[in-house]
Amino acid sequence: MAAQQSQGIQTLLEAEKEAAKIVQQARQYRVQKLKDARSEASKEIEEYKKAKEQEFKAFEASHAGTTSTTQAALDKETDAKLKEIEALFQSKKKDVVNTLLQRATQVQPELNRNLKKLQA
């Protein structure tokens, strides 16, 4: 009877050792799977990043010409507006100066209304 009990205990100890091995292998498998998943995710991120950079460079290249063209058009438009303003200034300058001189020389001196009230 004692031999059977010790044999049962021995079987239980072996089963426990086998279970510990299985648990350890499962942990190692899980750790390895996590490492693999991280490296796979890093690769996918790098590929996506490269694709987006190429897409951006293509977009930038396609719009770079239009930017300089647009800038040139805006510069021409600005020059035209400045010339138009300068011409308008030159044509109205004499009239404005004459109007200012006329207003400055047509002063009619009179007493202030508050001063008039005090004298009355």
UniProtKB/TrEMBL annotation:
GO CC annotations on file: vacuolar proton-transporting V-type ATPase, V1 domain
GO molecular function, one term: ATP hydrolysis activity
Keywords associated with the record: Coiled coil, Hydrogen ion transport, Ion transport, Transport
Keyword Transferase in record: no
Keyword Ion transport recorded: yes
Chain segments annotated as coiled-coil in the UniProt record: 12-58
Gene3D superfamilies given in the database record: 1.20.5.2950
Family the UniProt entry places it in: Belongs to the V-ATPase G subunit family.
Subunit structure: V-ATPase is a heteromultimeric enzyme made up of two complexes: the ATP-hydrolytic V1 complex and the proton translocation V0 complex.
NCBIfam families associated with the record: V_ATP_synt_G
Function: Subunit of the V1 complex of vacuolar(H+)-ATPase (V-ATPase), a multisubunit enzyme composed of a peripheral complex (V1) that hydrolyzes ATP and a membrane integral complex (V0) that translocates protons. V-ATPase is responsible for acidifying and maintaining the pH of intracellular compartments and in some cell types, is targeted to the plasma membrane, where it is responsible for acidifying the extracellular environment.
Protein name per UniProt: V-type proton ATPase subunit G
Source species: Pholiota conissans
